[in-house]
Specification:
The protein is α/β, with parallel strands linked by helices and 456 residues long. The chain contains 19 helices and 18 strands. Helix 2 runs parallel beside helix 3 and helix 14 packs across helix 16.
Length: 456
């Protein structure tokens, strides 16, 4: 972030410049006394100085000379109400970058500032960030330079500096944990722990002890005190994946942590204070769970301070070629293979494929291809993409009779058909079918039993 020092004895001008420059993304320090500004400049290096020409204790030219003695590379812009050719010549001789009259146009000043920083080799932070991203394809472990991903990168950069809780929204397999990790690694907490908890992957009876820990003797098997993951993550970031699967009782206890920054271990009598940033993620529509009453509304709003939407792979198809190339190189090294590319037609098939499993499915597909490939090129026959040329039956294709329909029965039929199709596509794997349907494994198993669907 470019650092700018403003020196002007006019309080109104200082306030105006501080507000304007801060909004532009610069770090700004303001002084009315040139001597104090010089003392400060000896302690902190600035990329740019904006100074008034006429000041009581020291004029702008004298201040310019002193600054240049300390920091020759620092760029200086003079502001004056009495602009003249002589003034400009004196300023330029002493090393000023430019000068501008006090009734300046804001856009003109912004352009001069950007040009001065460019000359020094410092660009506006946002501009530099986007340029760096666009020149490559990777950021924080994520691959892609589509417009959708550039928006995600930019959002990560903006929210990382804050301490606000974040909710990452996206389908299964889109890389939500990578986003959480990128936010942590670009934040002031980057040197502190990053702790991951899968709220849908830990049995409910163990989840509380994982969250908050327990005291010795609090239950059978508690032979020693144990710190929970919230304690482990103190001063750092905790990532709650699949937050929509969090049991109601734990929602209440998590709300207390979010609101009061305190909790108690199981069997403990003392409150433990914790400083931790919470990043949550879900592939569900939490608003619907709030309406159903299965997710607390107050907790939802506490966690969803800043939402980050992660696009599905089918909505960023231009990233498929670079992702494919990355995975080919990754697994060629891992398997010591000489697979170096993919055929044009095979790549076209990947681009046309909807990828219900998103990046996870693409990676799995390329890993399998590289492992089985006997040549140095991936061919279409090895992709194992299922192409159904027959027109699929429309599960909503029915007519209302004169007496209407039984809504619950028809919805059950639709749900049964969708689950059967998911089980067929996943070759009977309930775990994969649950991912395709964006529900938890336990939820799918319950629906299968409720609807009487035969095991496949």
């Amino acid at each position: 972030m470019a650092k700018i020092l403003v020196v002007d004895d006019d309080q109104g001008m200082r306030d105006f410049l501080e507000i304007m420059l801060t909004k532009e993304g610069y770090k700004v320090s303001c002084y009315g006394d040139p001597e104090k500004a010089l003392i400060r400049s000896g302690k902190e290096k600035y990329d740019l100085v904006i100074t008034d020409l006429k000041m009581p204790k020291m004029d702008g030219i004298a201040f310019l000379k002193r600054i240049k003695e300390k920091e020759p590379e620092c760029q200086v812009i003079l502001i004056t109400a009495f602009a003249s050719g002589e003034t400009a010549l004196s300023a330029m001789k002493e090393g000023a970058y430019d000068y501008i009259e006090k009734d300046f146009d804001i856009d003109d000043l912004k352009k001069i500032i950007r040009a001065a920083l460019d000359k020094k080799g410092v660009k506006n932070d946002d501009a530099r960030f986007l340029k760096d991203i666009e020149s490559g394809v990777a950021f924080g472990g994520m691959i892609g330079k589509s417009k959708e991903m550039l928006k995600v990168y930019s959002t990560i950069k903006k929210v990382a500096e804050t301490s606000a809780n974040i909710l990452i929204l996206g389908e299964s397999g889109t890389g939500k944990e990578l986003v959480a990790k990128a936010i942590h690694e670009n934040s002031p907490r980057k040197d502190m722990p990053f702790v991951v908890i899968n709220c849908g992957g830990i049995p409910e009876n163990l989840l509380e002890s994982e969250f908050f820990g327990y005291m010795k003797g609090s239950f059978t098997g508690a032979f020693t005190d144990k710190a929970g993951l919230f304690e482990v993550a103190s001063k750092g970031t905790i990532f709650l994946d699949e937050i929509g699967e969090l049991p109601t009782l734990l929602q209440v206890k998590l709300l207390r942590v979010v609101q009061e920054k305190t909790f108690r271990r199981i069997g403990g009598a003392e409150d433990i204070k914790v400083d931790v940033r919470i990043i949550s993620a879900t592939n569900q529509i939490l608003e619907n769970k709030v309406k159903e009453g299965s997710f607390r509304e107050d907790l939802y709003y506490r966690l969803n301070v800043i939402p980050v939407h992660l696009p599905a792979l089918r909505h960023r198809k231009e990233d498929i070629p670079v992702l494919t190339k990355y995975f080919i190189e990754k697994y060629s090294r891992e398997f010591s293979k000489d697979v170096i590319t993919i055929s044009t037609y095979a790549l076209e098939l990947l681009i046309d494929y909807p990828f219900p499993g998103n990046i996870r499915e693409l990676e799995n597909m390329i890993e399998r291809c590289v492992a089985l490939e006997t040549t140095n090129i991936i061919l279409p026959d090895n992709l194992f993409i299922c192409h159904n040329t027959e027109k699929e039956e429309n599960i909503l294709d029915f007519n209302f009779s004169e007496t209407g329909i039984q809504l619950n029965e028809e919805l059950a039929k639709i749900e049964r058909r969708l689950i059967q199709k998911a089980l067929t596509k996943s070759n009977g794997s309930k775990t994969m079918a649950a991912e395709l349907l964006h529900v938890s494994f336990d939820s799918l198993r319950y629906r299968i039993e409720k609807l009487g669907i035969e095991n496949q």
